[in-house]
Amino acid sequence: MQPTACPELAEGARAVVPKPETQPSPEGAKESHFGPALVIHRGIVTLVTAGAFAWARKSGRDTAAPERVRNMSHTCGNILLHLIFSTHERRPLIKPDFRPDLFAYLGGIVREMNGTALIINGACDHVHMLVRARPAHSAAEIVRIVKTNSSRWVREKWDAGFARQTGYGVFSVSESGLAAVTKYIASQEEHHKKHSFQEEFVAFLKKNNVAYDERYIWG
């Protein structure tokens, strides 16, 4: 189902919500937030042009606004976030023996927040996550929960001295840029044969026009 763009109304036009019954959600439909395409399950809006409205008044038809206006019953969103965070002081704390388990655990945390981790990868000193998030959760909340829970898990199971960097990077991703970001995250091992994490992160800040002072980036 492709989203339909509504044309601008002519001067004097009105948007009227008609009284006929709204269409129910299709049985077995996927959640709009995470399905392959966004779906608005309920609500029909008819756009009435100024000419049609004038004709209705002239013909004596009822043009009064309906007593009951239906609000949109679902919150719809498609929020793609590229999250980047490192270990404390960029130390090589993410060991190969537990790295796959850590990435799987990170994905599980996102899933518990009703989001989708599309790809997770990284190196010994940092992690990249591409996440499709729900509108109910802010980027700051997602990162806080992911970092807090995963760090505790690593300390309890693998390394008591494990710690994360205090800050993080978060960058919005368009649907059209999804494949490129996925490919970039998947090729982390090759990328870091030539570039350090510091170089990579500063390049992201510049590319996204983020003002920064390098004295305060690292922690």
How many helices in DSSP terms?
6
Task: State the separation between the terminal residues, measured CA to CA.
Answer: 46 Å
Mean pLDDT: 77
**Class of the largest domain in CATH?**
Alpha Beta
For the record, the CATH architecture of the largest domain stands as 2-Layer Sandwich
CATH superfamily of the largest domain: Transposase IS200-like
The 3D shape can be described as globular
Radius of gyration, CA atoms, in whole angstroms: 24 Å
CATH fold topology of the largest domain: Alpha-Beta Plaits
Total strand segments: 6
How much of the residues is beta strand, in percent?
Answer: 15-25%
Number of domains: 2
Kindly state the percentage of residues in helix.
25-40%
Largest sheet: 4 strands, antiparallel
* Strand order within the widest beta sheet: 4-5-3-6
Keywords:
4-stranded antiparallel β-sheet; Alpha-Beta Plaits; 30% helix; 6 strands; two-stranded antiparallel ribbon; disordered N terminus
Structure characterization notes:
- This protein has two domains: 74 residues, no CATH class; 138 residues, 2-Layer Sandwich (Alpha-Beta Plaits).
- 30% of the residues lie in helices and 15% in strands.
- It contains six helices and six strands.
- A four-stranded antiparallel β-sheet has the order 4-5-3-6, sandwiched between helices.
- A hairpin with a 3-residue loop joins β4 and β5.
- The N terminus is likely disordered.
